[in-house]
Amino acid sequence: MADAALRLTTLAGELLGSPFPVRIRAWDGSESGPPGGPVLVVRHRRALRRLLWRPGELGLARAWVAGEIDVDGDLYTALDRLAGILWERGPAGPGTPLRPLRDPRLRAAARGLLSLGGPLPPPPPPAEESRRRPGSRHTRGRDRRAISHHYDVGNDFYGLVLGPSMVYSCAYFDEAGGTLEDAQRDKLDLVCRKLALKEGDRLLDVGCGWGSMAVHAAREYGARVTGITLSREQAAWARKRVADEGLTDRVEIRVQDYRDVSDGPYDAISSIGMAEHVGQVRYREYADLLLSLLVPGGRLLNHQIARRPEPDESAYELDAFIDRYVFPDGELSPLGRTVAALEDAGFEVRDVEAIREHYARTLRAWVGNLEAAWPGAVRLVSPGRARVWRLYMAASAVAFERNHIGVNQILAVRTAASGASGMRARTRDWR
C-alpha cells in the first residue's frame, strides 16, 4: 500500500484516458499529480469502493458526505478541474466519462483500483441520503415528502446560509457590487416592478419560502398577498415574520399545494425558484392552473433554473447527487421548453431575462456564509448534512459559471380576448 497516491493517479488516468486533473493525497500521506492548486484528499480507501460501485458524481458525493474525501485548497478550482468527470456525458451517461472496459489494460486498471479499495460491496450510503420514494413522481404526497427533505432541516440553519434576507433564490447584483442583502432586495423589487404591482393588487406567491417576497410586496407596494408553501417550518417562520412586520391584514401564509389553490382571480402571480419542483410531467397542468387564477391582463413572473437541452431529450436523467441528497425529484427543463409550455397554456410571453452569472455570485456568497459559521452549522444539522450543502452550493456555482445550467425570469401575461395585455409599448417599462 506504499505510495497509494501514485497508484491512484496512474490507475485513474488509465481509466479516464487522460491524466487525473488534480493532485491527490492518499490515506498513507503520499501525494501524486499535477503540482500547485487544490489537492484532493482521500482520507480512507472506502472512498474507492464507493466510486467503483457508483462511478462518477454519486460515488464521489457519497465519499464526500461521509468525510472520506476532502479538498485542501480552493474548492471551486478543484470542482472546475473535475467538471469533466462530474458533468460531461461519457459512454455510461452523464457524469460517468469512464471508457468501456473492453481493453484488457483498462480491466487491469479497474482491478487495481479494486485491490486498493478493498472488497466490494461498499459501506451503506451516508444517512443524509434520501430514502427510496414509492409511487409516481410529483403526486401530492410524494412532493410534500420531497419538500420536507430539503426545507425542513431547521430555519436556524437556513438563516446561517442565506443571511438576514432569508431569500433562497438568485439575487440580482448591481454592476458596481453591493452586498448579498442589497442584491436580494433588488431582486424582490425587480419582480414587483415586472409584475407592475400597485396598492390593493392581489398577489399569489407560489412557493413563498420564508415570506420575503410576500412581505416586500405588501410593505413596499401595498399588495394583498397569499403565499403558499409545502414546508411547515417555512410557513411558521414566515407567519411570525409577517406578524413582526405588522402585515397580518395584508399577507396570508398557507401550507398548501399549488394544485389546491382555487380562490382566484389574482392580479399577479410570482413563482420564484418553485417550478423546479413541478416536474415535466406536471408542467402543463401548472401553467394551465396559473393562467386560470389570473384576471385578464394579469401577469406571471416565473423565475426558474434551466438546463441545457439534450441532443436526445428522452435520455435526460435526474442529477444523481441532487436527487439523492438535495432536491428529491427536482427536475430542470430547457428554457425553450418552459416558454413553450406557458404559451401552450395560453400565456403571452413578453420578456425573458437570463441572469445565470448572478446565481453564481449568490451561491458563492451562501458558501461563504456557511464556511464562516461552520461549527454552528454542524451543530444545527450534522457534519454530513453541512458537507452536502457546501458541495451542492459550490458545485452549483461552478455549473452556472461554466454555462452548464442557467436561470431565467420569464414575464408572461394572460392577455385579454381583445388583445389588451396591460403592457406599455416599451416592454421593459420596469427599468
UniProtKB/TrEMBL annotation:
Origin species: Streptomyces zhihengii
Residue ranges, annotated region (Disordered): 113-145
Stretches assigned to the Polyketide synthase-like methyltransferase domain: 157-420
Protein name, entry field: Class I SAM-dependent methyltransferase
One GO biological process term: methylation
Any Pfam family the entry gives: CMAS
GO molecular function, one term: methyltransferase activity
Composition-biased stretches (Basic residues): 133-143
Keyword annotations of the record: Lipid metabolism, Methyltransferase, S-adenosyl-L-methionine, Transferase
Family the entry assigns: Belongs to the CFA/CMAS family.
